[in-house]
Amino acid sequence: MKSLFTPKDVVRLIGISYRQLQYWDKTNFIRPTAIHMGKYRHYTFVELLQLKLAKVLREHSVSIQKLRRIINSIQELLAKATCPLVDCSFLFSGNKVFLFNGDVLMDAVTTDSFYRFDVRSLREDIDNLYPSEAESSEIRKIPVAS
After folding, report:
1. Structural domain tally of the chain?
2. pTM (predicted TM-score)
3. Which positions ≥6 away from 113 have C-beta within 8 Å?
4. Which CATH number do you get for residue 82?
């Protein structure tokens, strides 16, 4: 399972331009925290998730000011999360952000007033683009008989 992503990986996975990624980094919106050999910047899965959510919310006409507040809320929620991130779903409605673990069931009326994002979908996109990393991690998970 790939866990560090170069800017080139991010552009490919998220679908934003390299210039947009640089701008968000330069303005301290979402910055890579993993620095390799003192100069190569890598994004973690959590940062990749934040970038994906930012892109999707921008596509839903969320202003950049509101988006900054939402990303700050997401960062606070992620710091408190005790469940595996891949099992989580985010729900957005207005200024509200909800983080759920497991299945989220909603009726048709509620579904129309919320935007939902399942973290598992991002993990699957990564595993589909980088299958060798996914296969090698599954090989390591197989217990060895003694």
Report:
1. 1
2. 0.81
3. 93
4. 1.10.1660.10
